UniProtKB/TrEMBL annotation:
Transmembrane segments: none annotated. Belongs to the trans-sulfuration enzymes family. It comes from the Bacteria. Its cofactor is pyridoxal 5'-phosphate. InterPro entries: Cys/Met-Metab_PyrdxlP-dep_enz, PyrdxlP-dep_Trfase, PyrdxlP-dep_Trfase_major, PyrdxlP-dep_Trfase_small. Residues 1-25 are annotated as: Disordered. This is homocysteine desulfhydrase. It is an enzyme of class 4 (lyase). Pfam families: Cys_Met_Meta_PP. GO terms for cellular component: cytoplasm.
């Protein structure tokens, strides 16, 4: 920890302050992030070029290896996650595939939660077997399920996502962190570093799609992994060859997003809980889900391991597919789009869009019903959002 991060006199700074102050080394003395657009850098001598080419993650050699703007974003994320180091990627999926394919080899075994981001789930289910990597899917809400599926000497990775898409099921971070042997990974995208810190629970690796709330303005496609310096060095060696490199423009937008993440995330979490409470009372929908609702089956766990509970709300419309379609077309303030964590409130109806090719029983297995709606609550005034959802519920349910 530098003197700056420690806030002087050894006093640890609050996460909100660290989000504002972190990742400024390469931009100093500019206050806003400087975009180092250069794809390559001039060396003063052969010895210097050779040292750069053979060091890991050098950010003054060639931008696929490292880039100063990207380094600043990585350092800001490492600081927020309480990690020794971080590596940014060109997308969340770039980060996900680097961790899985960079750490697993033919003959290795992975234990993963069943409730995962669809892209991650497809990599584990369809790509891993092609490389001889065996995957066992377990119920992530059962704290003992991961450990029970570990094959000693064979399991290389344990993969969890919490809160998980779309029903906001949680994974017990202490239970995952306590697993000995394999490396443990948590996709913490829905929580952001402000909502929870998996590494504090003994988890080895935290993964984010920074495309979502971290960059936070729907103008960057960006991923990041935070872990020990040793693991990040290894992953960087793979990432340089994988080529899912973070753009300096996106990294600058990532840094810009981190500066305001604490206030954005707190506001979205508060509005989401307010809307969830109203929906639960309303009676036109069933099974409202938000980790802050007392009715969430893991509400106590959420209170224990999360600092902020997030801006996503999920609920079911009793009228099935048709009601779901009517709802997402009837909203006027909220918009139909697949992402989350930005300023604009977005709605998705998985059964008619992202998951349209699944059979009813396959939908049920991933927690999606025909009338399931996911709302990513933005920064609009809560009363305006409530009025919009109220009107759309009327159109969808005829009441
Ligand atoms: C969006 C998302 C990803 C993938 O990130 P991209 O930036 O879209 O590649 C991975 N995990 C979760 C939980 C996500 O929401």
């Amino acid at each position: 920890m530098t003197e700056e991060q420690a806030g002087g006199a050894g006093r640890a700074l609050h996460p909100d302050t660290r989000a504002v102050r972190g990742g400024r080394g390469a931009s100093h003395p500019a206050l806003a992030p400087v975009v180092w657009a250069s794809s390559t850098f001039v060396s003063a001598s052969v010895d210097e070029a050779q040292a750069a080419a053979t060091s890991i993650g050098n950010d003054r050699f060639y931008s696929r290896y490292g880039n100063p703007t990207v380094t600043d974003f990585e350092q800001a994320v490492a600081d927020l996650e309480g990690a020794e180091a971080a590596r940014a990627f060109g997308s969340g999926m770039g980060a996900v595939t680097a961790v899985i394919l960079g750490l697993c080899s033919q003959g290795d075994h992975v234990v993963a939660a069943r409730h995962l981001y669809a892209g991650t789930q497809l990599v584990l289910q369809a790509v891993c077997p092609r490389f001889g990597i065996d995957v066992t899917f377990v119920d992530g809400t059962d704290p003992g399920a991961f450990a029970a599926a570990v094959r000693p000497g064979k399991t290389m990775l344990v993969w969890a996502e919490t809160p998980a898409n779309p029903r906001l099921d949680l994974v017990d971070l202490d239970a995952v962190g306590a697993i000995a042997g394999p490396m443990t990974v948590v996709d913490s995208t829905f929580a952001t570093p402000l909502g929870q810190r998996p590494l504090d629970h003994g988890v080895d690796i935290v993964v984010h799609s920074a495309t979502k709330a971290m960059a936070g303005h729907n103008d960057a496609t960006l991923g990041v992994v935070a872990a020990s310096a040793e693991l990040i060095t290894w992953l960087t060696g793979f990432a340089v060859l994988q080529g899912a490199t973070a753009s300096p423009y996106d990294a600058a937008n990532g840094l810009r997003g981190l500066r305001t993440l604490p206030v954005r995330f707190a506001r979205q979490s508060a509005t989401a809980l307010e809307l969830a409470r109203w929906l639960e009372e309303d009676g036109r929908v069933t099974e409202v889900r938000h980790p802050g609702l007392e009715s969430h089956p893991q509400h106590e766990l959420a209170r224990r391991q999360m600092r902020e509970l997030g801006g996503l709300v999920c609920f079911d419309l009793p009228g099935g597919i048709d009601a779901g379609r009517r709802f997402v077309e009837a909203v006027e303030l909220a918009q139909l789009a697949s992402s989350l964590g930005g300023p604009e409130t977005l709605v998705t109806h998985p059964a008619s869009t992202t998951h349209v090719n699944l059979l009813p029983e396959e939908l049920a297995a991933v927690g999606i019903g025909p009338g399931t709606i996911r709302v990513s609550v933005g920064l609009e005034h809560p009363e305006d959002l409530r009025a919009d959802l109220d009107r759309a519920l009327g159109a969808a349910t005829g009441s």
